[in-house]
Amino acid sequence: MISNANILSALVRGISIGYAAAYYFLSFGKICGVSGILYSSFKKNEPIRSTKIGFVLGLVAAGLCWNFSYPAQVTFIVTNSYWKLAVGGLLVGFGTAMGGGCTSGHGVCGVSRLSPRSLVATACFMLSGILTVWIFK
Amino acid sequence: MKSLRGFLIGLVFGSGLVISGMTNPQKVIGFLDIFGEWDPTLIFVMAGAVLTYAIFFHLWKKRPKPLFLEKWDIPTKRQIDRRLLLGAFLFGVGWGLTGFCPGPALVSLGFFKLESLIFVVFLLSGAALSRLENSKRQ
C-alpha cells in the first residue's frame, strides 16, 4: 500500500508540473498541452513558434540535466518490444493530434478548468490505457 | 525574450515530470495496471498538478491580458465529438502499450535511450498522419 509520506511527496512533485503549466498560461495566455505545442511548433508562421520550440527544447534539456547531474533520480524502465514502441508511438501521435490533447493538455489543464471535452477525453484515454495494460502487459 | 521564457518553463515542467516519475514508463504502466500490481502514485501527482493549475489559472485569468501577448487564448469549443472520443481512445492505447505520453517521451530523449528515440519518431509520424487524414476529410 502507498504510504502517507509517498502520497505527500507525489502531491508536492505534481505541484511543480501544475505551476509550470499555469505559468505558461500566465505568460502566453495559452493552454500548456505538450502535444499541441510540439505539433504546432513545426508549422511555419505559427504564433509564438520560437517560444514553443523553446519549450520543447526545455523539456529535452530537463532530461539531459537530470541525466547528467542526478542520474539516481532517473529511473527508466521501458518495454524492449520495438513493435510496441512503434505502434504505441503512432497511436499516441495520431490519437493526440486527432483528440486535441494529451495528459498535460486535457488531463491537467482541461480537467482543472472542468472543461467538458477534457473531462471526457481524459476519462477515455484513462480507460483505454487501463484496458490496454490489462490485455498487453 | 519569449523563447527563453518558453525554454525555462519547459525546463521546470520537464523536471516536474522527472521527479514525479512520469518519465519512467514502468511507473506509468503500474498506474494503469489497476487489475494487476497497481501503483496509484501518479494519481496523487496528477491531483497535485490539477489542483495547482486550477488555483493559479483562475487567479491569473482575471487579469486583462497575459504577460507577453495581447489576449487570452482559452479554448472555447465545447462539443464532444467523435474525433475527440476516438482520438483519446487511440492515445490511451498507445499510452498503455508503452507507458509514454508526449511530454515524458520528449524529456526522456535527454536520457539517450534508443526506446525514446523510436517512440518519438513514430509519435511525430502518427501526428503527421493525423494531419494528412484531417486535410483529406475536408
Contiguous runs where pLDDT drops below 50 for at least 5 residues of chain A:
none
| Mean pLDDT over the residues of chain A | 95
Q: Assign an overall shape of chain B.
A: globular
What Rg of chain B do the Cα atoms give?
18 Å
The secondary-structure element order of chain A is HHHHHH
Secondary structure class of chain A reads: mainly alpha
Query: What is the subunit arrangement here?
Result: heterodimer
Principal-axis shape of chain A equals globular
Number of strands of chain A: 0
Termini gap of chain B: 38 Å
Total DSSP helices of chain A: 6
Q: What's the story with the biggest beta sheet of chain B?
A: none
Indicate the percent of residues in helices of chain B.
Answer: 55-70%
Helix content of chain A: over 70%
- C-alpha end-to-end distance of chain A: 21 Å
Largest interface: A-B, 104 and 116 residues
Q: Count of helical segments of chain B?
A: 6
Rg of chain A, alpha carbons: 17 Å
What does this structure look like?
- The complex is a heterodimer of chains A (137) and B (138).
- With 137 residues, chain A is mainly α.
- Chain A is built from six helices and no strands.
- The relative contact order of chain A is 0.10.
- Helix content of chain B is 69%, strand content 0%.
- In chain B, helix 2 crosses helix 4 and helix 5 runs antiparallel to helix 6.
- Chain B starts with a helix and ends with a helix.
- The interface between A and B is large, with 104 and 116 residues.
Task: Name the features.
heterodimer; A: 137 residues; mainly alpha; 6 helices; 0% strand; globular; B: mainly alpha
